[in-house]
Predict the structure.
Amino acid sequence: MDSEPFKPLSSSVVWSCPWYSVRRDDLVLPNGRHGAYFVVQKEPAVWVIPLLAPAAGAPDRLALIRNYRHTVKDWCWEIPAGSVKPGQSLEAAAREELRQEVGGTAVALEYLGRSYIANGICNEVGHFYLATGVTLARPQHEAAEVMEVHVLPVAEALRMLRAGEIHDAPSALALHMVADRLEASAGMGAKEQT
């Protein structure tokens, strides 16, 4: 197969707003017919797992947000996330979202990997980080953000993940990427995982 089975004829932005745009690509399809494909264009984004600094006598803890999403009219458990601004590094974006959404600052950030967020309709690439040694202060939510910050033991966050209570796919993916490590660092045994 060709590396690019669709042959582009023309491309134009048909709609845009400050957060994304919609591009129409006129193409020759693999069967030789002409067709149009609409692509949501978005800047790359970051998702950050905030692992809190250890507290004496307390279990390892994560900061999660419970975020109201108008698009699905539901409250969703998520990790801090947001778009990378033009000219901003991925790490700077991760630190900014951590600070804005949970009031967090991290001792260290570890890059975990990337994923296409909705590759059937959108070109957005999500980049995932684990933030360690996080301390919390007052968040700086934007006007359209309706969210609550929740500090949970790692064991509870992983239970929610495995029970399907975290419906935001990138947040769930990021947590799955480090679930074994979080369990090991929290000293979770087989009894605690069930």
User: Anything to note?
Assistant: The CA atoms of residues 63 and 151 lie 4 Å apart. The longest helix spans residues 169-186.
